[in-house]
Design goal:
With about 350 residues, the protein is α/β, with parallel strands linked by helices. The chain is built from 13 helices and eleven strands.
Length: about 350
C-alpha cells in the first residue's frame, strides 16, 4: 500500500495536480506550528534576497498547516556554500529550501571539486523569474560600448569564483576577445553596485535586465550607466539593440559553449529543496509556490520591491536541469577550461 501511495504522490507532482485529501491532511499536520527556512546564497539586499523575502511574507498562507516562513542568508563562494549546505547538511523533511546563483548548478559539470552536489537530485520547487543578464558600465568608465571593451580594460566586480559575475565575463573575454578584469570577493550584487558608485570598480557583468529597469531605473534615466551587452539564450525584447553575446561567437563550437553557460538564465530565480524530501511535502511546496506567485497580494508586494515575476514550475526546472546535465562532454570540457 505504501508503494502505491508513493506512486500516486509522485504522479501528482509530475502532473502538477492537487494532492489527495489524505496526503494533504498528513502534510498539514506536519507543517502546523513549524517554521520553514528559505536560505539565500548571498547577503541581504540583492535580488535573490528580495525574492526570498517577498515570498516568505506570503507563502505561508498557501501551505497546508500555514507554517511561518523566515529568510536566512548564507553568503559565500558565489552561492556555492549554501548549495553544498542544502545538498549535504540541511534537513530533508521539507522545512527548508534555497535560492542561489543561477550558474551554481553547472559547477559539477565544470569540474569544480568544491561542488559537492548533483543538481538533478534537488527537489526543484519552481522559478520566480526568467533572467536576462546584462553587463553594465558606470558612466565615468572609459568603456562606453562593447566595442570599447575590445581596446580598453573594464574593471568589474565579482562574487565567488564559481558565480555568474565571474564566469560570464571570463567566457566573453576568452571567446570574443574583450578586456574585462574581474575583481572577485564581493558578497553580492548590492555591494558591487555600491562599489561602482564609489569608483572601486567600473562595472558589473552579471546583473539582470529586470533588476536594472525596475530597481535602477534612475540610473538609466540619468545616463549613469551604459548597457554594454546581454547574455542569455535569447535577446530581451525590450533591448533589441544591445549586443547579444551568442551572436558574436566566432564558431558554432563557441556558440555551444555560450549556450551551455547561459542555459541557467532560464531558471534565473529558481528555488530548490534538499534531496530526498518526502514527495508529498515537495508537492505541497511546489503547489504553494505556484499559488503564491499568482496571489494578488504577493504580486503587489513584488511590484513595490521592483521585482518582475514569471512562474516556471518545478517540474519544468527539473527537465531543464536534466537537459543541461546531458550536454555532450566535449562541450562541458571546453566550457570548464574557458571558465577557469
Amino acid at each position: 500500500m505504501r508503494a502505491t501511495v508513493s506512486l500516486v504522490i509522485a504522479s501528482t507532482i509530475a502532473l502538477g495536480l492537487p494532492l489527495p485529501a489524505a496526503a494533504q491532511d498528513a502534510v498539514a499536520n506536519f507543517y502546523k506550528g513549524k517554521q520553514v527556512s528559505i536560505t539565500v546564497g548571498f547577503a541581504s539586499g540583492g535580488s535573490a534576497s528580495l525574492y526570498a523575502q517577498v515570498l516568505a511574507r506570503h507563502m505561508g498562507r498557501h501551505m497546508p498547516g500555514n507554517p511561518n516562513f523566515v529568510v536566512q542568508h548564507m553568503p559565500g563562494a558565489g552561492g556555492l556554500l549554501v548549495t553544498n549546505h542544502s545538498a549535504n547538511s540541511a534537513p530533508r523533511d521539507g522545512t527548508t529550501f534555497t535560492i542561489t546563483d543561477r550558474a551554481v548548478p553547472l559547477e559539477p559539470l565544470l569540474g569544480n571539486p568544491n561542488a559537492k552536489f548533483d543538481a538533478r537530485k534537488f527537489g526543484w520547487v519552481g522559478n520566480a523569474n526568467v533572467e536576462y543578464t546584462t553587463c553594465i558600465a558606470w558612466h565615468a568608465a572609459r568603456v562606453k560600448t562593447l566595442a570599447d571593451a575590445f581596446t580598453h580594460e573594464l574593471v568589474v566586480g565579482g562574487t565567488g569564483a564559481e558565480a555568474t559575475a565571474v564566469i560570464f565575463p571570463k567566457a566573453v573575454n576568452k571567446l570574443i576577445g574583450t578586456k574585462i578584469k574581474v575583481v572577485p570577493g564581493y558578497p553580492g550584487s548590492t555591494e558591487i553596485l555600491l562599489a561602482m558608485e564609489r569608483g572601486e570598480v567600473e562595472g558589473f557583468c552579471a546583473i539582470g535586465w529586470t533588476f536594472v529597469k525596475l530597481r535602477k531605473g534612475d540610473w538609466l534615466r540619468d545616463k549613469k550607466i551604459n548597457v554594454l551587452f546581454q547574455m542569455a539564450l535569447a535577446r530581451h525584447p525590450e533591448i533589441p539593440d544591445v549586443p547579444f553575446i551568442p551572436d558574436l561567437a566566432k564558431t558554432p563550437e563557441d556558440r555551444q559553449v555560450f549556450e551551455f553557460l547561459f542555459a541557467p538564465q532560464e531558471f534565473g530565480r529558481a528555488f530548490f529543496a534538499p534531496p530526498d524530501v518526502p514527495p508529498a511535502r515537495l508537492a505541497a511546496l511546489r503547489q504553494a509556490f505556484e499559488r503564491t506567485l499568482k496571489d494578488r497580494q504577493f504580486l503587489d508586494d513584488a511590484d513595490k520591491a521592483g521585482l518582475e515575476v514569471q512562474h516556471v514550475g518545478g517540474d519544468e526546472v527539473q527537465t531543464l536541469i536534466e537537459r543541461i546535465y546531458a550536454t555532450p562532454k566535449a562541450v562541458t570540457e571546453r566550457a570548464r577550461t574557458i571558465a577557469q
